[in-house]
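User: Could you go from structure to sequence for me? I need the amino acid at each position, not a summary. Structure tokens:
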């Protein structure tokens, strides 16, 4: 299960780094966020949005399965 989560597009290092940039700047500061994402070669805000739309259900489902498995194992 962990390997599937680690291989998921929303778990990739560039996407994680991009979300860290967003958190650090605050969601209202889109110009500064876009600039830093571009400078660091990270996915743009548009790309992140598309990734979320395409992969959110599978991300949710993997994490739901992980929690169910952890609950079974105690």
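Assistant: Here is the amino acid at each position, in order:
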């Amino acid at each position: 299960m962990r390997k599937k989560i680690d291989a998921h597009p929303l778990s990739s290092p560039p996407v994680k780094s991009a979300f860290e940039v967003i958190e650090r700047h605050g969601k209202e500061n889109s110009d500064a966020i876009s600039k830093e994402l571009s400078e660091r070669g990270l996915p743009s805000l548009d790309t992140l949005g598309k990734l979320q739309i395409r992969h959110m259900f599978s991300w949710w489902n993997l994490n739901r399965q992980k929690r169910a498995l952890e609950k079974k194992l105690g």
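One structural detail worth keeping in mind: The helical segments are 2-7, 13-25, 30-39, 45-73.
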